[in-house]
Amino acid sequence: AAGGRALVASRGGRMVPELEAAGGEHIELAVHSKNPVVMALNVERLTRLVEREGVSLVHARSRAPAWSALAAARRSGRPFVTTYHSRVHEKPTLKVFYNSVMAKGDAVIANSHYTADRIRRVHGPDEARVFTVPRGVDVAALDADKVEPRRMDALRAAWKPYELGPVFIHPARLTRWKGQFLSIEAAKILFDEGVTAFSLCIVGDHQARESYKAELEHRIADARLGPHVRICGNCDDMPAAYALADAVVSPSIEPEPFGRTAVEAQAMARPVIVSDAGGQRETVRDPSDEGGLERATGLRVPAGDAKALAAAMRKIIDMSEADRHAMGRNGRMNAVAHYSVGAMCRSTLEIYARLLAAK
Fold this sequence. Notes:
Blueprint: E1 7-10, H1 16-21, E2 25-28, H2 36-53, E3 58-60, H3 63-76, E4 80-84, H4 93-99, E5 107-110, H5 113-123, E6 130-132, H6 149-159, E7 167-171, H7 180-192, E8 199-203, H8 210-222, E9 229-233, H9 238-244, E10 247-250, H10 260-267, E11 272-275, H11 280-283, E12 298-301, H12 306-318, H13 321-338, H14 341-358
Helix pairs in contact: 2-3, 6-9, 7-12, 10-13
């Protein structure tokens, strides 16, 4: 759409057909490899590719490819751009060095102001090279009005949420820092307070973390949360999952660099409860923010605080359906205005244009 060619070098995968359908060109290279010999060979391969295809600019989005791409860009005299979208670690020293390539771009794109601040503190790049471009989501696909009832019915039959009260979903891969234990503990607090008309569906792939999944299941059983709280496994139709929910929880116990779940939930017009940390603090408008409840898209709670999470869930439970829908509509407008793929691409292309004009 911008009039250029997009060449993507990767080892391939399930998204290649989608890339090619959108007009991109895929070159299969083992750029994912951390083997130093392979990485050195990739420098030669990428340099030849850049020169043969007349590439104007090189953009890397992960660390192993970035080392080879940086060397190839420097050899061929092309601008080098990175997108730093993962957590910015301060230790161990070797990891900090390995990650530092993501801060070596002529332009370093951070996916949130939080990530940008972490990059500055840990890696110390030139201030003028750091840009914040929030991650974009597909607001056309993430549209509740486009989800057919049969898709929601299929999930309802599989997950069997409790029949009374709001349905909360907690979408995240099963790993401790994503806060599944916290949402289960919040559900138990609600039960202890006599609030039982709700369900919580924990949705996500365990990614071979069988012991962690077993811990969660035991905690649900020990707390006698019965049919109200379920571990539902991986879901291949997340728009339908969001549509099935009345609200979404994302109580990560460590700061999210961006927090895609919070933005996806807002795009689907669902109120979201998030940890008040990291990128999620930027994307979710709380009633305490300017504009108050009338502009709120969700609720922010202190990270790691099960009582605060339970209190926020109770606020959602106690809300009228009209108020929940109003909060959801605010979220949809927020996502469309600030966090669309289109907005992300426009901002990225502006950075490209600036670098190319400066050559």
